[in-house]
Structure formats: C-alpha cells, structure tokens
Design a protein that fits this description.
By secondary structure, the protein is an alpha/beta fold. 38% of the residues lie in helices and 14% in strands.
Length: 391
C-alpha cells in the first residue's frame, strides 16, 4: 500500500458520496428559488425536489406522494415513533410501543412514548426477532393501539429481519408497523407493499448521497400523524415544516436512482467481497466468531470478534495500518462501547468487547480485502505469539 493510501471499509457508518450525487448537489446549490414560491425560480426548486422524490419512492417501492423528506434517518425515526401515528378514522393515541431489542439507538432512544409504555422484543442468538413472543404479546394487549418498530437490516451485524412476517402478525392484531430501512436501502430490494410496513425510514448518506437528508415513506394516504415533530409552514404536505434542503434532497434523489440501477448486480459483487473477507478471518484466526452467520445478512456486512482482542486495540492497529473499520454503530460520539445488539443476542461480554464490523460499498475492490487480510494477519500473529509465550 502506497504512502498515505488508505482502505475504507466502514460503509455502514457512511458511504463516500458518489461523484454524480456531488455534482448534482453543486448544481442544485445554484438554484436561487424557495420551493414554496410560485415564481419561475421557486418552481425550478420545486421541480428538482419532486424529481428526487420520485427516485426515492422508486427505491422504496412506494408512491412519490407518500415520501416525506427529513434531515436524516434519526429525525425520520423520531418523527414517526409517535403515539399519534394511526390509520385514518382511528380515534385516540397508541398506548404501547414494541421495539426490537437490536434496533438502532435512534429508535430505542428517539421515540415519543413514556418509558413504561415501551417494551423490547427479544431476539434469538443470531439476532432474529422472536415472532412467537411478538404474537403472544400483541394478543395479550388485544384492544389496545400498538405501534411496533423493527429494522429491516441490523446496522452492526447485517442480519435481515423477516419484515413481511412481522407485518402479518402486527396487522392481524390491529397494530401499525414502522420498519427502519436505513441500512437495507440500496443493498437489498425494497417493496413497500410486499414488506407490509406502514412506514419506512431512509437516510441518503447510507446510499452515497450527502449527509443530513432522510425520508419517511408512508404506505398509503390512510396513515396519519397529528403530533408533528417540526411545526411551522405546510412543507412536505404538513408532515415536516421548514424550507426544504433542496441541494441535499437532489443529492438523495441521484443516490437513490443509482442505487436502484445497481441493485441488479451490486449485491452479488459485495457478497463476494464480504465472503472473501470472512474466509480470510476464519483462516487466519480459526477461533474467531462471526456474528449472525447463521442468518440471512446484508451482502456487504461482516461482524466478528477474535477472542483475546479488544475492539479498541484492533481499531487502533487497523487505523495505523491504513485500514478503516469500526466496532459497530457510528452513533456513539466516537466511543467504543459494548454493543447492545450483541448483548441482546446473548454474546458473552468478553467476546462482545472485541466486536469489529467490516462493511463494503460501491468503491470497494478485491484489493481492499487483501489489504484488510494483510493487516489482520499481523494482528492475529501477535495474538497467537502472545498466547504461546503465556502457555
């Protein structure tokens, strides 16, 4: 690896912006009009937003009129996880929120329900939702308005949840389902109707668009929400006030369009890179543990731990070797902490403290796998020498 050259393998934290999206953002920044204005400049800004809305809707398998732009996935999650989310004609507010135990922190901490009105849905040892528990718990609360939130793909392990089956169970008991699709979008096909979720949430910087833009995608006109997180003007059909981030939204649209185009071939390419990386880990450290390996996972994500290696040590080592990986979610102010995801899966604390995540994306190549493997081989050699000397 040449001097100063680095290998970026942290695409689940953020995807480097695609050149096409960056160019589109730059052009949109030159649009002078406010999208709420009726003059030509305003109409041009409005047209750019609506074109982007169509591309985001296509990626989610939804209708453009059901896409509401936000400042990101966190805001989208915070906005829709409200007791006021309901079907048209329903009275009152939801009195219970059930969330997957391995959800992103913006779901676990970002809802607007009282603490005593929230329960976590357990997962099994590979991270899959306990469907029997969910069914029984909803039956126990029959007659109450219940909102359920389950992510499509876990941001740390890449484990894919059976969202269509979750939706079937939730709707059979009269509940509503929110599905966090932030990590899934662009990596696996999304079809709002087939998935059955009442609301999906997305984020553009996970697709190769600019940071700071997201969306809530509603299944139909029948999904309403009276308690708006951001109030003011009537932008975004009244769901989210504030002058739209035209440039960011345009970048979102371009990134979504490219992601949709690449869904035919890109997942298979990423899976080959992921599998090659996983094979290298297992070869160099036979006692390494791959999390969620028995479940269906995102094609780009590998989460593992090497017994005896703490995440802090490994992250520093890889960074010095010019390889960027992570210890899990990037939403912890740069801190390395034990994963609540692995804890919910029953992973022993000593092993969870060594968890690393390698994630690939549009700029990744086989050379990146080789550079990672070379660095990991050095780390593994150091570990096994230390063990041999201690024996």
């Amino acid at each position: 690896m040449g001097a100063g050259e680095r290998t970026y393998l942290d695409y689940n934290a953020t995807v480097p912006i695609r050149p096409e999206a960056a160019d589109a953002v730059a052009r949109a920044l030159a649009l002078p009009g406010n999208a709420s204005s009726v003059h030509a400049e305003g109409r041009a800004a409005r047209g750019a937003i609506e074109t982007a809305r169509e591309h985001v809707a296509a990626l989610a398998g939804a209708q453009a009129k059901h896409v509401v732009f936000t400042s990101g996935g966190t805001e989208a999650n915070n906005a829709v996880l409200s007791p006021s989310l309901r079907r048209a004609g329903e009275a009152g507010a939801a009195s219970l929120l059930l969330v997957g135990a391995t959800e992103h922190v913006s779901v676990l901490e970002g809802h607007r329900f009282a603490p005593e009105a929230v329960q976590r849905i357990p997962v099994d040892r590979v991270g899959l939702i306990d469907l029997a528990w969910l069914d029984a718990e909803l039956a126990r609360h029959e007659g109450r308005r219940v909102l359920v939130s389950v992510q499509i793909a876990n941001n740390e392990t890449g484990v894919l949840q059976p969202i269509a089956e979750v939706a079937r169970i939730v709707h059979a008991h009269g509940g509503l389902l929110h599905a966090d699709a932030v990590q899934a979008a662009g990596k696996v096909p999304l079809d709002s109707a087939a998935l059955g979720a009442d609301v999906l949430t997305l984020s553009t910087h996970k697709l190769g668009g600019p940071k700071g833009v997201g969306a809530a995608v509603f299944a139909s006109d029948r999904i309403e929400m009276s308690d708006r997180l951001i109030r003011g003007g009537g932008q975004e059909r009244g769901f989210r006030a504030g002058t739209e981030n035209v440039a960011g939204i345009v970048g979102f649209g371009v990134a979504a369009e490219i992601a949709m185009r690449d869904l035919t071939a890109e997942p298979a390419r990423l899976r080959r890179l992921r599998d090659a990386c996983e094979a290298a880990v297992r070869r160099l450290a036979p006692d390494a543990v791959v999390f969620g390996a028995e479940a269906e996972r995102l094609p780009n994500t590998l989460a593992f731990a090497t017994p005896g290696v703490r995440a802090e040590t490994a992250l520093i080592f890889f960074d010095l070797e010019g390889v960027s990986v992570s210890s899990g979610s990037a939403c912890s102010s740069g801190k390395v902490r034990r994963s609540h995801v692995l804890e919910a899966m029953g992973v022993p604390p000593a092993l969870a403290e060594g968890a690393l995540r390698v994630s690939f994306g549009w700029g990744s190549t086989q050379s990146d796998v080789e550079r990672f493997a070379a660095a990991y081989e050095k780390l593994a050699e150091t570990l096994y020498k230390r063990r041999a000397n201690a024996a």
